[in-house]
TrEMBL record:
Required for flagellar hook formation. May act as a scaffolding protein. This is Basal-body rod modification protein FlgD. It comes from the Bacteria. Residues 1-24 are annotated as: Disordered. Keywords: Bacterial flagellum biogenesis. Belongs to the FlgD family.
Length: 220
């Protein structure tokens, strides 16, 4: 009896190790092996001490639970892939448009840039700090409150470069309350998806999550 059960167990291991293909095929193969093992148990059990029917029910319930979990995992995987693909299609139309986001932006001095500020509501003063691609400060000036936007024409000697705009909020005692990256309209060159999240790539090379984009417009 023991040899028969052992042989059935060995057959199970061989079947599991050699199985290939999708999970549905694996489940089907495993279920057939499970039935063979169950039949072997019935054929070789001690007639004077037969296995309780509840034990068979428990084995079947356990296998069914594993089978359901595998199918659920497949369903969730397919759902995630479908959502990711759908998101990419949805945001794909953004490519070529300009988006307001907290990113660095290319500037050649030919046009004014509009920076969307996020100043603390109870701030007594605020500053706009402009940094170039090397991180050096090229300008720092006060922002007239209240102000939701600030324009930056750039200095006459400002060269074509990539600039970022930092908005600093200050309390009445002069202490800094916060520092945020100002949102600027910049061209979108790519939209990509990874791990179910959609990222937006800008002309300057900056990459942000799609949720960080607060506005869209046609190129001006």
């Amino acid at each position: 009896m023991t040899d028969s059960v052992t042989a059935a167990t060995a057959a199970t291991n061989a079947s599991s190790s050699s199985s290939s293909g999708n999970s549905k095929t694996l489940i089907s193969n495993d279920f057939e092996t499970f039935l063979r093992m169950l039949t072997t148990q019935l054929e070789n059990q001690d007639p004077l001490n037969p296995m309780e029917s509840s034990e068979y029910a428990l084995q079947i319930a356990t296998f069914s639970g594993v089978e359901q979990q595998v199918l659920t995992n497949d369903l969730l995987t397919n759902l995630t892939e479908n959502l990711g693909g759908g998101g990419l299609s949805q945001y794909g139309s953004w490519v070529g448009m300009e988006a307001a986001a907290p990113v660095a932006v290319k500037y050649d001095g030919s046009t004014q840039l509009t920076i969307l500020t996020e100043i603390e509501a109870d701030a007594s003063s605020a500053k706009l700090v402009v940094r170039n691609s090397e991180g050096s400060i090229v300008e720092s000036r006060e922002i007239d409150l209240p102000a939701e936007t600030v324009t930056w024409p750039g200095e006459s000697e400002a060269k074509a470069d990539t600039y970022s705009f930092i908005v600093e909020s200050y309390a009445a005692d002069g202490s800094q309350m916060s520092e945020t990256l100002g949102k600027v309209y910049a061209p979108i060159v790519e939209v990509r998806t990874e791990a179910g999240k959609v990222s937006v790539v800008f002309e300057s090379g900056s990459i942000v999550n799609s949720n960080d984009v607060s506005a869209l417009r046609d190129p001006v």
